[in-house]
Amino acid sequence: MKIAFYGSSLLSSYWNGAATYYRGILRDLASRGHDITFYEPDAFDRQQHRDIDPPEWARVVVYPATEEAMRSVLAEAARADVVVKANGVGVFDRELLEGAIANAAPHAIKIFWDVDAAATLDEMRADPGHPVRAALPDLD
To answer: Domains in the chain, please, with CATH?
Structure first.
């Protein structure tokens, strides 16, 4: 399957503890034959603090942290069988979640990947308009 993954960073764990978590799981998925593209914004100096070079087991697309670039990478969701939006990207989180769902192909599995569920649940309790709450009916 083709997997489009929108997350904070695969290449840098700088202010991004989820990077090691992503690396292990995505490397394993790739070893099982899945084709993974990880989309990460050039934000928070992460690209200047890379821990790894782009891995051979995933294509990494680093895009400028602009609305135009975000829309461009979200259009790629239409080519995937699985579309994943991770929490905590840090820029355009709401827009990435909404766009990943809106741009996904009709057959695609749509996933919200939460690396800090306790914090997200607290936010959802405090905010009836939280974007994850609104997205739940459209997620698999």
So the answer is: 2-138 (3.40.50)
CA 67 to chain centre: 16
Q: What is the pLDDT of residue 15?
A: 85
Per residue in 19-55, pLDDT tens? 999 999 999 999 999 999 999 999 999 999 999 999 9
Q: What are the strands, taking DSSP E only, across the chain?
A: 2-6, 35-42, 59-64, 82-86, 109-113
Cα-based distances in Å from 122 to 56, 91, 116: 37, 20, 10
In this structure, the strands spanning 59-64 and 82-86 are: unpaired
pLDDT over 70 for what percent of the chain?
A: 100
Question: Does this model's pTM top 0.90?
Answer: yes
Write the CB contacts of 37 (distance below 8 Å, at least 6 apart in sequence).
2, 3, 4, 5, 58, 59, 60, 61, 76, 80
Instruction: Give the strand pairing for 82-86 and 35-42.
Output: unpaired
